[in-house]
Write a structure and sequence with these properties.
- There is one protein chain.
- The chain is an alpha/beta fold.
- Helices cover 39% and strands 24% of the residues.
- The protein has helices spanning 40-48, 70-77, 95-106, 111-124, 140-151, 170-187, 198-204, 231-237, 241-253; strands spanning 2-11, 14-24, 29-33, 55-60, 63-64, 80-83, 158-162, 190-194, 207-212, 215-220.
- The chain has a six-stranded mixed sheet with strand order 6-7-8-3-9-10. The chain has a four-stranded antiparallel sheet with strand order 2-1-4-5, covered by helices on one side.
- A hairpin with a 2-residue loop joins strand 4 and strand 5.
- The longest helix has 18 residues, at 170-187.
- The radius of gyration is 19 Å and the shape is globular.
């Protein structure tokens, strides 16, 4: 579990995060949503230590990440897995070598053990047979699955995903969503996903945090969104005509 307490972040005179307090639950897919410029990316960067909060706390199972020493933060990051928007694979390394990379850096396993662990992770994302290919030889969806395999190689407690469906078609996005959801349950990780994808919100949003102009405007499960009376949330979620029709249908049934 990750608990955020009264988190503020300013850049000069501009206050971007305004007293956010929330809990990201263990074993669930926690989604951060909001318009561009709302502060959700800044929030995630504060969670992983890429930015330092102006004030407030970020507690990893009770451990205050903000106040840790540099050495303690390095150790803490070994418990984190990260999936970047662009997959961020190394073009000069094979799929297997990409997944092995964090193991080579941080584990004390033998070469054979590292190779086996990497293959186990590739098996989990259904990529056995692609281990000798290079990133340029596989599709965007496969690259995202390689990134997921790499992110779970060290068996992290916390998994951070920045727009994991960016650039993917709807069918492939659904595959990635289901994979992230099942892995979260299987390994009982605290998974945090920064997304604009409303299909992800409605499909795997077990704990959804809506950020509006730097503060937490709403929090709940995806099933509660259809009936929400929060106008800022509904204006954001139901921006498309299709989603508006879905909400109207649910409202009429009730």
């Amino acid at each position: 579990m990750i608990e955020v307490k009264d988190l503020y972040k300013s850049f000069g005179d501009k206050e971007v995060l305004k007293g956010i307090s929330t809990v990201f639950e263990n074993g669930k897919t926690n989604l951060i949503i909001g318009q561009s410029g709302s502060g959700k990316t800044v929030l995630m960067k504060n969670l992983v230590g890429l930015l330092t909060p102006t004030s407030g706390q970020v507690l990893y199972d009770g451990r205050d990440f903000v106040r840790m020493s540099k050495k303690e933060k390095v150790m803490m990051r070994r418990e984190m897995g990260m999936i970047f928007q662009s997959a961020a694979l190394f073009d000069s390394l094979s799929v297997l070598e990409n997944v092995m990379f964090p193991l080579d850096m941080f584990s004390s396993m033998t070469l054979r053990e590292r190779q086996q662990r990497a293959m186990d992770c590739l098996d989990r994302v259904n990529l056995v047979g692609a281990e000798q290919k290079f990133p340029g030889e596989i599709s965007g969806g496969m690259q995202k699955r390689v990134a997921i395999a790499r992110a779970i190689a060290l068996n992290p407690k916390y998994l951070f995903c920045d727009e994991p469906n960016s650039g993917l078609d709807p069918k492939t996005s659904l595959v990635i969503d289901e994979l992230l959801h099942s892995i979260t349950r299987e390994f009982q990780m605290t998974t945090i996903i920064n997304t604009h994808d409303m299909n992800s919100v409605m499909g795997i949003g077990e704990n959804v945090i809506f950020i509006y102009e730097g503060h937490k405007e709403w929090q709940g499960v995806s099933a509660d969104i259809m009936g929400s009376t929060n106008k800022r949330l509904t204006d954001f979620i139901f921006a498309s005509d299709l989603l508006k029709e879905m909400r109207q249908a649910v409202t009429h049934k009730s």
